[in-house]
């Protein structure tokens, strides 16, 4: 069976549920490739008429908002012990350095960190639980959460779907290449985010070392 024929047999509802579930779990605090799934599904919608882009975007938005809200409630109940537990379970994502970096973003930007965090892989996982742990007022969190979910999930779906429709003929002939391109795009974005996270972590370490170091390097008054 040609891949185009196989894709036509994929139930649209399963695509909607998969996108909403993966993005919801990622927003809740579980490190999953939500962005890759959303980009792939949007390209799929561009080449398959039975997948409605509006329902797809709505599923992604719902998953983002609901997942973040559940993560907020879990963080509010669990507090710092929850972050410590996540650090032991997912050391690559919830290490002390990553948590400290995310906390600095929240302390500096407040509710804007929730909105902007939707576009950054590291903060997208942290936003809900960390906002709850830091006792951010829920109404502030909800506003930033909803706006961020609409702009990120809805915007990503609209942009990728539009690009896919422009190249629809090409995608129909080489749909497997479109999926590969989507995966490469998602992996590339993840690598960029990891490099940014490492850079932020290195800057944090330098800042911590500069504190005591500066005190040691202060000039000593000359003896009379």
From TrEMBL:
The chain crosses the membrane at residues 15-39, 51-74, 109-127, 139-162, 174-193. It comes from the Bacteria. Residues 204-224 are annotated as: Disordered. Pfam families: VTT_dom (PF09335). It is found in: Cell membrane. Belongs to the DedA family. Its main location: membrane. It comes from Streptomyces cuspidosporus. This is DedA family protein. The keyword Acetylation does not apply.
């Amino acid at each position: 069976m040609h891949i185009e024929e196989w894709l036509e047999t994929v139930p649209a509802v399963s695509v909607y549920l998969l996108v909403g579930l993966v993005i919801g779990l990622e927003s809740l605090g579980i490190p999953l490739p939500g962005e890759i799934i959303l980009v792939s599904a949007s390209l799929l919608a561009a080449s398959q008429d039975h997948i409605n882009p509006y329902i797809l975007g709505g599923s992604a938005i719902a998953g983002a908002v609901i997942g973040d809200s559940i993560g907020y409630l879990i963080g509010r109940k669990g507090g710092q012990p929850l972050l410590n537990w996540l650090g032991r379970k997912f050391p690559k994502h919830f290490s002390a350095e990553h948590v400290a970096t995310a906390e600095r973003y929240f302390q500096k930007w407040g509710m804007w960190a929730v909105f902007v965090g939707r576009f950054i892989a590291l903060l997208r996982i942290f936003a809900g639980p960390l906002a709850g742990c830091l006792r951010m007022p829920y109404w502030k969190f909800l506003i930033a959460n909803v706006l961020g979910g609409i702009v990120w999930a809805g915007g990503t779906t609209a942009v990728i779907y539009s690009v896919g429709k422009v190249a629809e003929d090409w995608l129909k002939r080489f749909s497997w290449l479109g999926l590969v391109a989507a995966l490469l795009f998602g992996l590339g974005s993840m690598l960029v985010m990891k490099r940014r996270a490492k850079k932020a972590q290195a800057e944090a370490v330098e800042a911590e070392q500069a504190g005591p170091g500066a005190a040691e390097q202060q000039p000593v008054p000359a003896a009379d």
